[in-house]
Amino acid sequence: MPDETLIDRTHDLSQPLERLSPDERMKDRSDYLRGTIAEGLLDQITGAVPSSDDVKLMKFHGIYQQDDRDLRDERRRQKLEPAYQFMIRVRLPGGVCTPAQWLKLDALARAHGGETLRLTSRQTFQFHWVLKDRLLPIIQGLHETLLDTIAACGDDSRGVMCTADPQSSRFHAEVAALAKRVSDHVIPKTRAYHEIWYGSERIGTSKAEEPFYGRTYLPRKFKIGFALPPSNDIDVYAQDLGLIAIADEEQLIGFNVAIGGGMGRTDQALETYPRLASVIGFVPVERVITCVDAVMAVQRDYGDRQNRQRARFKYTIDDKGLNRIKVEIERRMDFVFEDARAFQFTSNGDSYGWNATPDGRYHRTLVIENGRLNLKLLDALRDVARVHQGTFRLTANQNLIVAGVEADKRAGIDAILAEHLPNIDQVSAIRRSAIACVALPTCGLAMAESERYLPSLLSKIEAILAEHGLSNEPITVRMSGCPNGCSRPYVAEIGLTGRAPGRYNLYFGGGFHGERLNRMVRENVGEATILKVLTDALAHYARERLPGEHFGDFTIRVGIVREVMEGRFFND
Fold first, then answer.
1. What's the pLDDT tens digit per position in 208-264?
2. What is the pTM (predicted TM-score) of this model?
3. Which positions are annotated as active-site residues?
4. What is the CATH number of the domain that holds 304?
5. Contacts 24+ apart (CB under 8 A), 323-329
6. What is the pLDDT of residues 529-561, one digit of tens each?
7. Which of 301, 333, 365 marks a domain boundary?
8. What domain range includes position 480?
């Protein structure tokens, strides 16, 4: 058993609140996430929530206050407040959605969300362009089909991911059900959400309102994901806690446990970096919940609560030591990890078109560029939802699976979609798996374009690939409008993160299966330089690649970039 006195406790929950960051004091005085949100929603003088504390607290409720940055300068010149609007993120464990839920989401997007929905890189939906007086109708409308937004954002466990494709494993349904169970288990227990959004009465009780999280919740967000080899579609190594399914010929045995993944960094803060999760052992199925509790409790108690730039679990692990964190997790679980079991990932992309599962049902994966459902696509998918009797499954690559379709129903679904979506053969290999975050004009953190820019950049990259006979190469490309890395750009073979309007950091060398970080090859450059560097590297790849060699592996083998052995060496 480790001696806790050997663990540095100078920045964590053991310290007096006055020594911690302002956000810790804000959470403590929020009365378990209530704040004055209810009062702020009634304020008709402004389109914003007036209290800065409430703006932060609303993230725990799945809501970000934003403004239209395309209009920001003009409104400032006119002496008007920003064009405030809100983003609402749904909690959708494993990305599974019923047709009834889809139809409700569609109706709410048309009525209150600018006639658009966004499929995210964490398998859920986002509403954008929501005005303040439309927040209640959306959240109450979601509740009618048993959907909510609690803990979709904030310093808590965010939405739990799970490999999306039902054909990925015979045990997919079992793992997906466990992901749902974990999601329900780790959400905050405060009644604040029900009181503010559903109008529930506050009920006095002697029980602790947050028996696990306490008054100050976690130091920062915490992400959990379940992966079913050979598919690493969720990028399990990018999760704070990754659970990798292990099965024999007959049953699901348990999970390898990987801890400490995370993408976010700050360009000018070299002490921040992306990190891949470290596999520390194996737990049987029946002990997964206990393991989740123990891992989160270690981060809750030892995570940095003074410096939010270094408050993620990855820094707790690197600062305290991986082995010491592992032993502390074992102490809290009251059992020791078994040795990790063998497994292999072969892809982190999606399987497109129609595929079958042993139950005789079929699943069609649709390419949804950057996850954006415009009105045309909403119309088509509404028609599908009206006749579909299975489920919809959102993928971590911002695509969509129409799942559980009977054989004789496929033609009807194909006919509905034919007018609105290109055939998969018409979508290039590089475009199928490309991911972009939303960025401008709604995200307040964006430094450059992402979703609105990546499609046109891909067209230029496609021309380079065609010139060198590489059109069929499934190279992974990820773009984020800032270094926080919501699209997981630091594990892409080609990654781009925004620095300023029209300027990006360019990265090469990520692992095709999501198993290796990339490294910066050019800093703060515009499109002309990006395309020149890509042209040179891709031409080199076309000439000298080995049989079956992926682009990311090639860039390291020939010395275009050095391999990143650990996240803490990312900035070297």
1. 899 999 999 999 999 999 999 999 999 999 999 999 999 998 999 999 999 999 999
2. 0.96
3. 89, 158, 221, 223, 437, 443, 482, 486
4. 3.30.413.10
5. 324/2, 324/6, 324/7, 325/259, 325/260, 325/298, 326/259, 326/280, 326/281, 327/1, 327/2, 328/2, 328/7, 328/298, 328/302, 329/259, 329/280, 329/291, 329/294, 329/295, 329/298
6. 999 999 999 999 999 999 999 999 999 999 999
7. 333
8. 430-569
